[in-house]
Amino acid sequence: YHFQVIFEVAFNSAKGGYVALDDISFSPVYCSNQTGMRTPFNPSDAGCNFEEDLCNFYQDHKDGPGWSRVKVKRNVYRAGDHTTGFGYYLLANTKFTPQPEYIGRLYGPTLPGNLQFCLRFYYALYGFFKMSGTLAVYIFEENHVVQEKIWSVLDSPKGVVFVSWCKSFWDCGLVALDDVSLSLGSCQAADLLLPNPGECTFEKDECVFTQKKRGRGSWHRRRDPTPTSYTGPKGDHTTGVGYYMYIEASNMVYGQRAYLVSRSLRGTSGKQCLTFFYHMYGAGTGLLSVYLKKEVLPPGGFIKSCILPLQIIFEAIRGVSVRSDTAIDDVLFQAGPCLEVEEIQFTSGYPDSLNEIEY
């Protein structure tokens, strides 16, 4: 329903006084200190990346084996989980279930019924002759008695349960699920917010990164080896045949700087983890630095329960030699502390270095 917000000022003295008001803003983003709510609902509690456990999701084991947490080693044929490529995701393997009409349900936590939510998740399907109905999302109400389907594979997207369905032994396959997230407000409203940095492999474009001025002394998006011999990567880190960003030292002078700056991004509370791969091989290699730029409040400014936007800046400085190209690839920025990186299988087959920046 439509409503109005009214600010009322009243003075209880004949001498009067003054009240100052400034910078009123509205946002569909969740505010943690909701006035009047004894137990505020935090949408992040209804999401999960399945790295450590099922979070607040659970299964009814009478449905069968259901969803399992698995991980695979990332290589050129397998991308790994969606979060990092090296972590866990959920897998429903219906191929070897003995019973037909197999259904595996994953129940989400109970949600307040008087709020609007935007649900996002990543999935993958393999080995199904018919995709329709293979993966579906329902809303359960009144102790799981009433249910409403809100999404299914090949349908237009419109307490949540994910359903993996196998019609027969021969009409089965694998269903993978990862990075379930919930936010307040409509998905259309959420899309209008500042973007999350997420992941950028530079395969299609430069993602959220921009440059104030382009020219010989700037970052370039490239595939295959760099023009100057004995420097630069032989291929990108993602697949070995894709794109990466680099500076061409032969076009620059010693000490010249090139900046790759992200657009203004949504800030979040708590720790963040920035992961990227870089290549700095060659005579007289320069310097690669990463900066975090946060917006500053104006004098007298005041923000409560809101997180200031931020920017990520990659700065490359040309070294003393023309063979001092610097390249970066596979930038990943996500909420939470950096996880311990286990044995990494480099898909490009060339020496790389992994950087983690935690703050």
Automatic annotation (TrEMBL):
Residues 1-33, 46-165, 198-340 form the MAM domain. One of its GO terms (cellular component) is membrane. InterPro entries: ConA-like_dom_sf (IPR013320), MAM_dom (IPR000998), MAM_domain-containing (IPR051560). It holds the Pfam family MAM. SUPFAM superfamilies: Concanavalin A-like lectins/glucanases (SSF49899). This is MAMC2 protein. The gene is Mamdc2.
